Amino acid sequence: MQDAVNQEIRLAKFAQVFVGANQLIFGLERVLVIWIGANLALQSVFSVGMLIAYLAYKDQFALRMAGLVDRAIEFRLLRLHGERLADIVQSEPESSNPGGLGRPDSLRGIEIRNVSYRYSEGEPWIVNDCSFTIKHGDSVAIVGESGCGKTTLVKLILGLLKPDKGSLLIGGIDTSQLATNDLRAMIGAVMQDDQLFAGSIAENISFFDSDLDFDRVQRVAELAAIHLDISAMPMGYQTLIGDMGSSLSGGQKQRIVLARALYRNPLVLVLDEATSHLDVMKERLVSDAIKSLPITRIIIAHRPETIASADRVLVMEQGRIVHEFGAQVQLETASP
Ligand SMILES: Nc1ncnc2c1ncn2[C@@H]1O[C@H](COP(=O)(O)OP(=O)(O)OP(=O)(O)O)[C@@H](O)[C@H]1O
């Protein structure tokens, strides 16, 4: 995807240079032709009529050639769009696993039992014999050095990766036995690289729900502390945002992505550096609003203020949880 975007940028630059060079060369050539033609006409080698006819046919020829080159460039762009589509079409469809073992009991929380995961054989284990439990309604922060495996761990909880060893139980049911739709319906997530899509803000929050519930869109926007920003925009919730939310600030984008996760009414909310672009005041607003919801929260953060919003802190080191303590204890230790 990134390659495709880079290649498209390179092609756009090339097209700009091409158009500039094209106009310069053809401008100079026209001046030269008229100057030579006029001289020849004055010397009676050429009639004025022949000169005008020559210029008219030459213009037509140049126009057609430029059209041909434009089509060639568009054809190359078509290949790029094809590659993008192929990324989507050729990716394996997620099994909906309709024969799931049963409905999870949301009140039983999450249990991670000796889970290990590595991205490919021969590479080191990123999550290594990791075990812990999260009760329903708990708010848990997972902290640890960059690269210790926090994001990988939450991807395992979200069902985006399958554990190589051990098991993950959500609502008392092993995720490998859980219907994917049930799992997706239970968990909302805001990941580090989540993106918005071209469309209106309301569509992005409802994730293009065909049965859009506007009251709910507004309610979750209030929870994510983005309602006032959206209301201040001339077209409010109908404001169109560019591909990947290009017209919004990083903090606004994060809060819309958070509202999108809340729109689905999840029982578990996973926030991976989800408020890193917010100032401390905004972040506190968001944390307090989410705290009031009866949901389990798993927060990955580096900022002490974010970590303080959790009830429990799990410290991860080299792929496993090595300590656990209350957030208040951690904050008191951190303060001078
Ligand atoms: N798709 C991938 N393929 C191969 N290795 C990966 C992949 N994603 C992550 N890794 C590696 O796994 C390790 C853990 O990455 P992860 O993103 O889980 O760490 P993290 O603790 O969340 O870090 P951070 O706090 O910086 O976000 C890193 O060494 C990373 O290079």
TrEMBL record:
Main location as per UniProt: membrane
Membrane topology, as annotated: Multi-pass membrane protein
A Pfam family assignment: ABC_tran
Residue ranges annotated for the ABC transporter domain, each copy included: 110-331
Keywords, in A-Z order: ATP-binding, Cell membrane, Membrane, Nucleotide-binding, Transmembrane, Transmembrane helix, Transport
Domain ABC transmembrane type-1: 1-77
GO function term, MF aspect, one: ATP binding
Subcellular location: Cell membrane
Transmembrane segments: 32-57
This protein's GO CC annotations: plasma membrane
UniProt cross-references to SUPFAM superfamilies, sorted A to Z: ABC transporter transmembrane region, P-loop containing nucleoside triphosphate hydrolases
InterPro entries membership: AAA+_ATPase, ABC1_TM_dom, ABC1_TM_sf, ABC_transporter-like_ATP-bd, ABC_transporter-like_CS, P-loop_NTPase, Type_1_exporter
Keyword Transmembrane: yes
Protein name: ABC transporter
Naturally occurring in which organism (per UniProt): Nostoc cycadae WK-1
